[in-house]
Amino acid sequence: MHDFIFGAYPYLAGTIFLIGSWARFDREQYTWKADSSQLLDNKNMRLYSNLFHIGILGIFFGHFFGLLTPHSWFLAFGISDLTHQYIAIYLGFIFGVACLAGAVLLAWRRLNSERVHAVSRGRDTFVIIWLAVTAAIGLSTIPVSSGHASAGDAQQMIALSEYVKSVATLSVDPRLLDNVDAIYKVHMFFGMTVVLIFPFTRLVHVWSIPFSYLTRAYQIVRAKRITT
Amino acid sequence: MSHFVDRLRFFTKETETFSKGHGIVTTEDRQWEDTYRNRWRHDKVVRSTHGVNCTGGCSWKIFVKNGLVAYEMQQTDYPRTRPDMPDHEPRGCQRGASFSWYLYSPHRIKYPLMRGRLMELYRAERAKGKDPVEAWEAIQSDPKKRKKYTAVRGLGGFVRSTWEEVNEIIAAANVYTVKKWGPDRIYGFSPIPAMSMISYAAGSRYLSLIGGACGSFYDWYCDLPPSSPQVWGEQTDVPEAADWYNSKYLIVCGANLPMTRTPDAHFAIEARYNGTKVVSMAPDYAEYVKFADLWMPVRQGTDSAAFLAMGHVALKEFHVDKQDPYFTEYARKYTDLPMQVILRKDGDRYVTDRFLRASDFTENLGEKNNPEWKTIVFDSKSGAFVCPNGSVGFRWGEEGKWNLLPKNSADQSEIEAELSCIDNRDDVLDVAFPHFTAGEGDVLMRKIPVRKIKIRNKNTFVASVFDLQVAQYGIDRGLGDNLATSYSDGSVPYTPAWAEKITGVKAADLERTGREFAENASKTRGKSMVILGAAINHWYHNDMHYRGIMNLLHMCGCVGQSGGGWAHYVGQEKLRPQAGWAPVAFALDWHRPPRHMNSTSYWYFHTDQWRYEKVVADEVLASTAKGRYKGYQLADYNVVSQRLGWLPSAPHFNKNPLDVVAEAEAAGAKDEAAVAKHMVKQLKSGDLAFACEDIDAPESFPRNLFVWRANLLGCSAKGHEYFLKHLVGAQNGVMQEGTEGAACQEIKWREEAPVGKLDLMVDINFRLNSTGAYSDIILPTATWYEKADINTTDMHPFIHPLAPAVDPAWESKSDWQIFKAIAKKFSELAETHLGVRKDVVALPMQHDSPQALAQPLGEVKDWKKGDCEPVPGKTLPLLKVVERDYPNTYKKFCALGPLMITAGNGVKGLAWNTEEEYEELKKLNGVIKEEGITKGMPQLEEDIAVCDTVMEMAPETNGEVAHKSWKALGVKTGIDHNHLCDPRQHEKIRYRDIQAQPRKIITAPTWSGIESEEVSYNAGWTNIHEHIPFRTLTGRAQFYQDHEWMLDFGEGFCVYRPPVDMKAHQIVKEKMKNKPHLVLNWITPHSKWGIHSTYQDNLRMLTLFRGGPYFWVAEDDAKSIGLKDNDWVEAVNGNGATVARVIVSQRVPRGMAMMYHAQEKNVNVPGSVTTGKRGGILNSVTRTVVKPTHMIGGYAQLSYSFNYMGTVGCQRDEYVIVHKIEDRDVDWLERPLTPAREAQLNPPGIEN
């Protein structure tokens, strides 16, 4: 079971994530959207939505760089493992709390705002609650991590990082997690599941962040379509 | 290709750049655009329109995709107008554009529906082995069973049935009713045929075949202005909208052009670019006000005062101070102003009496034919009283002199009718004119220049209408009665200063507008126009508002001139191919006459609104009245009217008319005359009585009601709650006991008021509206995009179709096919239960027929009071025997009958042979092949064949018929009119033609204007330019009405009459009066978001406005009781209550609540806190009230014709109490039906 969840599940989730996104983009263009309900109820959305989005983006980039940057690079920059861990704990706490608060408020709004509730589908409610739970578990790793950090022990962090890299390099080794506390594993399961459900939810809008707007020309003219 | 792969465009990113790199050209995938393109892609486009009761008559493109109607768009292929005229297009508004929503909406009636309890009862009886009629009888003869389903009307409970079952039950109910009570207990209500005339004809043909009564609608809606029959002898004929553009001076009064005549409003707006001045009159800042150069904010219900003041100015400056040559000539030839009126001594004063007649002179001035019907002028050429051509007496019994040529009938010499005898007077008399303004006395004393003549050796004084009219307007002529010295003399009625007190409009504005209006007409020969609307017509004294306007128009020579005259607001009342349609619609090809009824009187009686009548007739009488019926109630007058053969009746008598004939025949009567004689004897003895004399007796009840193309209960039912209580027998909000009716002298008073008179109510509709909700059976009909039909309006001269873009959805079918199927079942059941029977129709004296000369000199002779003998067609309705071959009803329905050959066709008193058209129809549509009475006759089985039959027989769509009809008129007038139509003699317009493009109709004598390339259609054009008389007593447009009842009620001349006090708001309970409330005049204008009740429940329209019922209140009024916008409010009075949201606006003046017309109770209507019943509709707080002057008959233009004459259902004089309802008190009544609730039909505390 352990091997399945940490050996096969990441790839299962990743595959569904990629193929699912592709399939949805190709087949369901009209569902490719953020499904914003702000038009129906804009009350407090500046707070709720920004808390959530800033939080989750922070977490995303934190995990991304924290776990995928090669260990040696950190050391090369002069960041020791413990510093790394403290950065992770503090930034993780700040963004995690923001994300959790935002997610809880959004989930509350989704259930209690009459108009938003009326247009909510099961997956909309599910995904925001799932994200909230994932963030909550993530936050609950902080005391454990702090314990490690105060004891000067960065081994678990390094193990997690190594594990993630093993997944990323297609040489997965669940054994790397043997000495990791269970709470991290639960968090990882939840996180991987987010990736799994991603193509089936409104999260697909993440793919469409309009980075090109940063560099695009003022005017874009589409060439006349040659009918075939 | 894959969207994703297309996005991977690294190597083909850009093709080129431009503007120094600020722009790029990409070859990005554009497939996504196809979705939007497909949204507007379609399989076919079909021309249709909306058969809704509006003025538009707009042709639409219906787009069909995948077998479903996707959307609609305005057609833009109308024939062009002539140069210098704007085109008619685009025609269509936001409401029409939303129609396709209905087709597949939750409102759609998909299957035949039946009230579940009725179905159970009926099936149980049938299961016992009874045949359908016996089963129906079993239910009806058991009051408990009957009440079981009637008492839950309006409370839901419909279940799906089948066509076979509903047809059987409807047919059984009809057969039973015909047998037990009489065919005149079956009633059909459907409005304004022109909007979908074949659908109308379907029901009316079925009813006319079985002897049911078809109810009028135009008068019931109060859109009929009775002033039009009174003044012109014309139901209403108005200019097409394009003629607004030709006007040089427009007064728009109570007609919200952009809002309610959306497709036509552009003509009025464009006229402004053409230099036309536009003056608007509206109490509120209505949408049309913003297009005007001047806004005169007139107090609601006082418009006549404003127009009388403008008339005062025009009359003084253009007729008295100087004589405008054009106006004077017009007045002499085309108005009754030179006609002489006898003055009657009334104590020490005189009052105006009847017109002087040829019969008043020795040897009748040489007139042998109808001398009592020929009015007199003074000829200044010969210096003698002469009888000019053209009065109604020339119309019947002789030929060639019924025209408006200024000729002396005796020798056809030229005459010049004298307007005033002021310079040649014999005397000056004090004449009293009735006056009704509070605090100003009951009469106006005026000095009148008169001539003295001897009538039967008695000295008699006569005066011209002109001299009387000038005096009545308060214009001083130096005769010593010290009338208005200036316009600012507010003490003399009808001066601008006086009118300012009444109307709130500045005297200076009235003065200037009156002067400019006349001056413009003088310079342009009549191109001054008044566009007038429901806002001034829906009042009890609407005829005064209208006659005030007509007076101004006639003084200024505007009527009948292009760009001039009146533009009354109705539209699709103009059933252009009327002459071809009527035989089909009323089965005149099989039986004549049909059975018609004026609906206002019908509902007034049968919904027992007369029992609650608080308006006392004596209070409406003038002090100068002869008043032979003093003490009579308004309802009593209607009884008198029916028995004198003025207004129709339904049911006619207290017996089944089939039995009446059978009895007469048993007593030996062999023919119609003998049957009539027998009946007269019985009427005299009292063995037979008019049903209205005991209207609440079970034998007087209406038993079966068909409502199709209509929304009787949710829309036009003024006194909605009374309908619910007495007619339908449902939960109702009537807040009073109704004891006033006990004062009636002609009607038997029954202490206990009947509840639930109808045995069966059938609604035929495509949407579930309030009428359907209260019916027992709802039949699913084809929508306007699913059937073939014809549509016309008077706003434009084109005829165009409704066409099936898609087949009728679910189990619906066209009205023609629905009634055909009912007729079939009816025939089957009639075989055993009815057989061939003889029916007697009591027909009132008809307008445009010789019976319009039934009752000479305007004197009321009442046989029941011993004034005369009852003579059918003279002092009693005509009694016409009609044979009803009931088992052949279906066959007759499906074939054009033989009377079209033997009796011919006609319209408005003209007749012509129609044999050629009949033969042509056989070839065009095919004949009936089945054995039986109809074998070989042209078929009427398919909708399109019916359309073509109508168009083949109508002069407007068949040039040959036009030719014949104008020839027939030419014989009467002695003038050849055929140049008007003969260039199009060989033209025939058929259904397929109009499906290709709307077609302009051919000029026909049915109408008073012409279709031409030189002038736009304008009412009265042929009266002025072709010298065809108005169809009035004098043959002229009449300022003066001389019937005894017109004089009794003080309306010989137009006077200002304030709104009547309906008194219904005075009886609300103390409890309510103690909390903050407003007392407001209840104003119900036509809406922006619906056409009557249609569209107002359409999601698209609901989304555009407040999404439920609302009414408007002035900001200051609202503030005074703490109302905020969108609060829940209740309007309540003795008639009931209605709950809505309030719109608080500065747009509305203080003192009125405006609830836009026909917001129904089917969307977002909570319960009323006062009545405890569902919150109501706009008419829950109204009650209709009838006016005796509208009941006159047998007297020239004041004679009955369907939708032409009759009481009108006014509702704007009403006041309500408005108070706030807290959100917590809003009760949606969403509870199950308990026996206790079912038993409580009335509001708490109401016993009867």
Write down the Rg of chain B: 30 Å
- Helix percent band of chain B: 25-40%
Mean pLDDT of chain B: 95
The first-level CATH class name of the domain at 37-191 in chain A: Mainly Alpha
Strand content of chain B: 15-25%
Structure commentary:
- The complex is a heterodimer of chains A (228) and B (1248).
- Chain A has a domain of 155 residues: Fumarate Reductase Cytochrome B subunit (Up-down Bundle).
- By secondary structure, chain A is mainly alpha-helical.
- Chain B has 1248 residues and is α/β, with parallel strands linked by helices.
- Chain B has an eight-stranded mixed sheet with strand order 7-6-25-24-23-8-9-22. A six-stranded mixed barrel of chain B has the order 33-37-34-36-35-38.
- In chain B, helix 12 runs antiparallel to helix 15 and helix 23 packs across helix 24.
- The mean pLDDT of chain B is 95.
- Chains A and B meet through helix 1 and strand 1 of A and helix 1 and strand 2 of B.
- Strand 1 of chain A pairs parallel with strand 2 of chain B.
Outline the fold blueprint.
The complex is a heterodimer of chains A (228) and B (1248).
Chain A: H1 2-27, H2 45-68, H3 71-77, H4 81-112, H5 114-119, H6 122-150, H7 155-168, H8 182-197, E1 219-222
Helix pairs in contact in A: 1-8, 2-4, 4-6, 6-8
Chain B: H1 3-7, E1 16-18, E2 23-26, H2 32-39, E3 44-48, E4 60-65, E5 68-74, H3 100-103, E6 113-115, H4 116-127, H5 132-140, H6 143-150, E7 158-160, H7 163-180, E8 186-189, H8 197-210, E9 213-215, H9 227-232, E10 249-253, H10 257-260, H11 265-273, E11 277-281, E12 294-296, H12 303-320, H13 325-334, E13 340-346, E14 349-355, E15 377-379, E16 384-386, E17 427-434, E18 443-455, E19 458-464, H14 465-472, H15 496-503, H16 507-524, E20 528-532, H17 534-537, H18 542-555, E21 565-567, H19 578-585, E22 596-597, H20 599-606, H21 617-620, H22 634-643, H23 657-666, H24 672-685, E23 704-708, H25 712-716, H26 720-728, E24 760-765, H27 770-774, E25 777-780, E26 789-791, E27 798-802, H28 815-833, E28 836-843, E29 878-885, H29 889-893, H30 899-902, E30 905-907, E31 910-912, H31 915-925, H32 943-953, H33 959-973, H34 991-996, E32 999-1000, H35 1021-1025, H36 1044-1048, H37 1070-1074, E33 1078-1083, H38 1099-1104, E34 1110-1114, H39 1115-1120, E35 1128-1133, E36 1136-1145, E37 1152-1154, E38 1215-1221, H40 1235-1239
Parallel strand pairs in B: 8-9, 8-23, 9-22, 10-11, 10-20, 11-12, 20-21, 23-24, 24-25, 33-37, 34-36
Antiparallel strand pairs in B: 1-2, 3-4, 4-5, 6-7, 6-25, 13-14, 13-19, 15-16, 17-18, 18-19, 26-27, 27-32, 28-29, 30-31, 33-38, 34-37, 35-36, 35-38
Helix pairs in contact in B: 4-5, 4-6, 5-7, 7-28, 8-19, 8-28, 12-15, 12-16, 12-18, 15-16, 19-32, 23-24, 31-32
